[in-house]
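Design a sequence for this backbone.
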């Protein structure tokens, strides 16, 4: 999950460029519509990483490696997409 969040974050950053980042949010139908909001991609990725550590699914170093790996994958995907003619 950390890798996915980081990859999505890298793609969002590539798509938005230098424009201001909109507030990111998501709602959970299974948690009575609870909504989480983040002011940056980094906040979202950090929360996912922290939740995986606090939930006992990862060690902190595993989350850090996952963030680095996911970010690189997202950057590569964005670069490949942006380099293709549309």
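Sequence:
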């Amino acid at each position: 999950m950390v890798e996915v969040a980081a990859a999505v974050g890298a793609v969002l950053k590539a798509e938005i460029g230098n424009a201001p980042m909109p507030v990111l949010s998501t709602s959970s139908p299974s948690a009575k519509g609870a909504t989480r909001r983040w002011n940056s991609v980094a906040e979202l990725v950090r929360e996912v990483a922290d939740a995986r550590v606090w939930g006992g699914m990862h060690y902190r170093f595993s989350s850090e490696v996952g963030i680095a790996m996911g970010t690189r994958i997202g950057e590569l995907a964005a670069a490949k997409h942006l380099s293709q003619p549309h």
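The chain has a mean pLDDT of 90.
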